[in-house]
Amino acid sequence: MTDKELRDDLKNGRVSRQYILIGDEPLLIDNAIAAIKDALKIDNPFDYESVSLPDASVEEILPKLFVSSFLSARRLFVFRNLEELGDREIKEWQEAFNRQPYPNCAVLTYLSDKKDQWRKYDAEKIAGLFRSAQCVTFALDKTRVREWIVRRDKRSGLGLSLEMIDYLEEEFESDITGLKNELEKIENYLAERKSLSREEMRTLTSGLWDFDKYKFVNTFFFGGKDALRQFEESRPYIGNYAEPVSTLGRRLVKNAARFRDGAGISDMLDALLTMDRKVKTSSLFMDLYFGIFLTKKWGVFKKGAAYGK
């Protein structure tokens, strides 16, 4: 089933008991979940629950699928991150979902990887395991990316030039989720400034996109004193601190593999693990942690993995 077929069903009042949503664009999956939620007329927190499968257990969740809804047609349960489970865990959830019918609606999500062809094959295999689910696959229509940018531009009053629209279309034609995040960054920036020149707009989008591609991380690992400043400037546009923690970790592993002299690697990994735990518990001290982390570790990495000979 395609995204369009799903929406046609929902418009006609046909809501299945179970869906599995498979695609490589989180935004398209989230939009489909919102459409299912609207079709069930869910407007209260009791009738909607979203959980990450790696953090949930069958014994804890399955009984909830039989609890009657409060005000909606049915309760809606969203089970995310199926792609993060191993074969044994997937089999456990598969048996639970295929075992018997329940009155509510369950949605499973499987986020495939744009670059990993094996993950795409896995997604097809997963769809066959959950035989009682309606499988919905999402494919990005590149021909509509420009239309989406223009519509968002008019709705938000950004005033994007044709040149900027061309740039965004070319840069994000295969990443609608990244495009949404980029436009939100621009909106946030414009909320603080009343006007922005064409060149400033290009610098803004280019600069923030470079940040996503390890700009401040590279500055940090090569001992650049601008690392903390770059982090501070980018902070308003970071959706989740897990992103820079993950980026730092990946760059650390890459540097460790390239150079023999690994001084400071163990110390750095310990600090990153500490931050990672704080991120997952939504610590209010993450700004402080990053500031201390970036300031303290400059010297270590100028003499360590990044500069080792």
Explain the layout of strands and helices.
Elements: H1 3-11, E1 18-23, H2 26-39, E2 48-52, H3 58-61, E3 76-80, H4 87-99, E4 105-111, H5 117-129, E5 134-137, H6 145-156, H7 162-171, H8 176-192, H9 198-212, H10 215-221, H11 227-234, H12 242-258, H13 265-280, H14 286-302
Helix pairs in contact: 1-2, 6-7, 6-8, 7-9, 10-11, 12-13, 13-14
Question: Could you explain how this protein is built, in words?
Answer:
By secondary structure, the protein is an alpha/beta fold. It folds into three domains: 3-137, Rossmann fold; 142-212; 215-302. It is built from 14 helices and five strands. The protein has helices at 3-11, 26-39, 58-61, 87-99, 117-129, 145-156, 162-171, 176-192, 198-212, 215-221, 227-234, 242-258, 265-280, 286-302, and strands spanning 18-23, 48-52, 76-80, 105-111, 134-137. Strands 2-3-4-1-5 form a five-stranded parallel sheet, sandwiched between helices. Strand 3, helix 4 and strand 4 form a beta-alpha-beta unit. Helix 1 (3-11) runs parallel beside helix 2 (26-39), helix 6 runs parallel beside helix 8 and helix 10 runs antiparallel to helix 11. The longest helix is centred in the middle third of the chain and has 17 residues, at 176-192. The model is unreliable at 207-213 and 303-309 (pLDDT under 50).
List descriptors.
309 residues; alpha/beta; 3 domains; 56% helix; globular; disordered C terminus
